[in-house]
């Protein structure tokens, strides 16, 4: 099957430093891809170049459709909402940016799917850290994107909130959404990802399924592989 997104030779430089050094990356329909690697490895920069949010200094990205922005959903690490508006108002505002208006049933559905039903009328600034993360994901889902990018969606959450986000990712994947996420939690990556891409110092060091990769390198699990390849 042809990939939805095909990135070739992506390069990014800041000042004199090259932080992404020629990354080739394909995203296939309905897969869940995890980008892993140390802090500063270049994961977010790579995602942002794929999303068209940061111009690459080299390389190219090809998409399956003419207007990819309409079909890509993004949750980056910074919170993207308006603090004085409620969760529902934030969603309605984002919908308006896409030229849509969420009907009451659609609003309920998206809030429920993201575990935010009780937070509908709460101002975004008063939501807990986990609820804010869920609102960021809900915002990314408003226009029902075909491909969803989640940058550390479970970072700094309590175990229950983490589980709820993982369950949401699984549900979205089952309903046909292609998902690319970053995480520093190797157990989580083993649980969720169909394919893992390990980035270290701006280059892809290993790529494969979470089951096959450790076998291929003769180690017991993904965490051992990570520690071995990111020295
Ligand atoms: N706007 C910028 N100006 C200068 N340097 C930057 C900029 N954005 C990122 N960098 C640098 O690029 C490198 C890669 O950063 P990036 O955020 O892509 O890493 P990451 O793998 O996502 O890390 P983390 O796991 O900590 O989120 C880092 O050294 C970072 O300091």
Automatic annotation (TrEMBL):
Annotated protein name in UniProt: ABC-2 type transport system ATP-binding protein
Record keywords: ATP-binding, Nucleotide-binding, Transport
Gene3D superfamilies in alphabetical order: P-loop containing nucleotide triphosphate hydrolases (3.40.50.300)
One GO MF term attached to the UniProt entry: ATP hydrolysis activity
Taxonomic lineage: Bacteria, Bacillati, Bacillota, Bacilli, Bacillales
Keyword check for Cell inner membrane: no
Keyword Nucleotide-binding appears in the UniProt entry: yes
ABC transporter domain boundaries: 5-226
Pfam families per UniProt: ABC_tran (PF00005)
InterPro entries in alphabetical order: AAA+_ATPase (IPR003593), ABC_transporter-like_ATP-bd (IPR003439), ABC_transporter-like_CS (IPR017871), ABC_transporter_ATP-binding (IPR050763), P-loop_NTPase (IPR027417)
């Amino acid at each position: 099957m042809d990939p939805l997104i095909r990135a070739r030779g992506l390069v990014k430089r800041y000042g004199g430093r090259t932080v992404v050094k020629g990354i080739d990356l394909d995203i296939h329909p309905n897969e869940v891809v995890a980008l892993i690697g140390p802090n500063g490895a270049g994961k977010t920069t790579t995602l942002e170049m794929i999303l068209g949010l940061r111009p690459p200094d080299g390389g190219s990205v090809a998409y399956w459709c003419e207007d990819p922005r309409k079909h890509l959903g993004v949750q980056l690490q910074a919170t993207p909402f308006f603090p004085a508006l409620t969760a529902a108002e934030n969603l309605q505002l984002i919908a308006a940016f896409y030229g849509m208006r969420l009907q009451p049933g659609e609003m309920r559905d998206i809030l429920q799917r993201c575990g935010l039903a009780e937070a509908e009328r709460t101002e975004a600034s008063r939501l807990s850290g986990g609820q804010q993360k869920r609102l960021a994901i809900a915002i990314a889902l408003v226009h029902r994107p075909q491909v969803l990018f989640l940058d550390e969606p479970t970072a700094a959450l309590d175990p229950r909130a983490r589980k709820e986000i993982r369950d949401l990712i699984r549900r979205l994947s089952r309903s046909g959404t292609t998902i690319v996420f970053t995480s520093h939690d190797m157990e989580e990556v083993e649980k969720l990802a169909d394919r893992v891409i390990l980035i270290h110092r701006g280059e892809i060091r290993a790529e494969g399924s979470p089951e096959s990769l450790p076998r291929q390198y003769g180690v017991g699990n993904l965490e051992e592989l990570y520690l071995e390849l990111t020295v």
